[in-house]
Amino acid sequence: MNLRSASATALIGSLVLLLTAALGWVLLLGPTLARVGEQREAAEAAADRSALLALQLGRLQAKAGDLGDTERAERRLAELFPPTADQPGFFEQIGEIAREAGYAPGDITTLSPSAPAPLAAPAPPPPSTTGDGSAAEAAPAGVPSDLAVQTVAMTLEGGYDEARRMLRGLERLDRAFLVRSVALSASGDSSSLTMSISGATYVAPPVPAPAADETSQAG
Amino acid sequence: MIILKDRSPTDTQVEVSSSVNLLSPWVHEELRVRRWRQRFALGLLALVVAIAGGWAYERIVLAQVEADLRGEEATAESLQGRIADLAPVQTYVDGVDRRSRAVQQQMATDVAFSEVLEALADATPGGARIESLSVDLPTGVGVTIAPDGTITDVTRGLVAAGCPGPDPFAVLEVIGCVTLSGTAADRGTVGQLVISLAAAKEFSEPFITTTTTDEGASVTFSGSVALTPKVFSGRYDDRAALTGLSDEAADETSDESGEGSE
User: Fold this and answer.
1) Which chain B residues are closer than 8 Å to A116 by Cβ?
2) From start to end of B113-162, where are the E strands?
3) pLDDT on residue B137
4) Does the N-terminal peptide bond of residue A122 adopt cis geometry, omega within 30 degrees of 0?
5) What is the DSSP string of A72-90?
6) Contact residues, B window 61-100, toward A, CB-based 8 Å cutoff
């Protein structure tokens, strides 16, 4: 083939153009375009993340600005699951609902709360109680938990209606009281019934509220 | 120029041009090659300029995108810092939410025993008297509560064992067994008690195991009746009602905790 012919020149020239275009794409345009694409995706991801963080921050600022609802909820939950056994308060509550049910103070023949025992985490099923009112499902020693159970056994002497009202009172108690067993038995030929109740109350540590300066830091 | 005259009446002029190329064929070929080379040189120059221009443009775009990325990263870092400043608030809200879930979890099997006694009293016909009863709820295996607070397990993990019933083939959802005993005027009255207990929504499968009479006097009976899931109090089922916080807010809190930990 004569390299100085017109056809050979056209062929070689076309090849040079193609080679130049290919080299330009492979060495310059292609890598740059790829990097632009990568950086653009990264920028979009960063923008999305910023938007999400801004949303979170907005919600947190709103919460920090008005923690009243959360504090009220915490107080209500602290009534249901108090931070300590608070035996004086518990005895007072039981005495109050017994009075309202129609029992005389002497009709509560037994009221035996056990010492609170930590529950294993996560929260296990409700505890069963043994005959002496002790917790059968208390967590083994050393298991970290933010919940403890206190079993309570009580015996009362009274009528059927008093028993029903007493149970109603326990269901409406400010402190959560989970009744696990109820036994009623007649005392001789009279209409008096002996009611034995066993159940459980729970103890949970308080949730510490943030300090005032912590709630105003990101305003 | 040569003008031919026709004999036709109308004059017609025909122009004929002719030239003589005296260059040799290889010179023509050389000229064609030279023209091709010029064209390819121009094309190559244009291509290089186009590639350089495109590359320069992309570099400018890349610089802008990188600047945007740096800006977004700085924004995110700033937002994260401000969120970190509010971490105690998040911890507090999470703690309260966790406490409300614990209350719901532990108290999910709360039973309204007062309603059980009331239903039993309503079901007891005249002439019959309940003298003793006993109910001991079994220990459940734990109830599964959905993130939105709903409980789909009807018996909530409480499975009654050892409660006899009249239908050995029935598959019933019961959560506990009440054993009871009492006296009645006659066995017909005991039968009425069984019918009434079966009709009450709180009870299922009443079954009398013993009826005895003492020298024609009243009948003493004993038996059992199962408790249905209707006796769950449900007092602790609605976390929003329990705490005054909406479920939506609690869910947002959970979401934020999850996102924050990523």
Assistant:
1) none
2) 128-136
3) 87
4) yes
5) HHHHHHHHHS-SS--HHHH
6) 61-62, 65-66, 68-69, 72-73, 75-76, 79-80, 82-83, 85-86, 88-93, 95-96, 99-100
Cα distances (angstroms) measured from residue A111 to each of A94, A114, A137, B215: 9, 10, 21, 41
Buried-exposed string A73-91: b where 16+ CB fall within 10 A, e elsewhere: bbebbbebbbeebeeeebe
Residue of chain A whose alpha carbon sits nearest to that of B43: A17
Q: What is the CA radius of gyration of chain B?
A: 49
pLDDT digits (tens, 9 = 90+) for A54-104: 999 998 888 888 788 888 899 999 999 999 999 999 999 999 999 999 999
pTM higher than 0.80 for the full model? no
Q: What is the CATH number of domain B113-235?
A: 3.30.70.2830
Q: Which two tokens stand for residue A120?
A: 């294993």
Place of tokens 């009279």: A190
Cβ neighbors of B207 (< 8 A, separation 6 or more) are: B164, B165, B166, B194, B223, B224, B225
Which pLDDT band, with edges at 50, 70 and 90, does B14 fall under?
A: low
Q: Which of residues 56-115 of A touch B (CB under 8 A)?
A: 56-57, 59-61, 63-64, 67, 69-70, 72-74, 76-77, 80-81
Q: What is the pLDDT of residue A96?
A: 94
Per-domain residue ranges for chain B?
A: 22-85, 87-107+240-261, 113-235
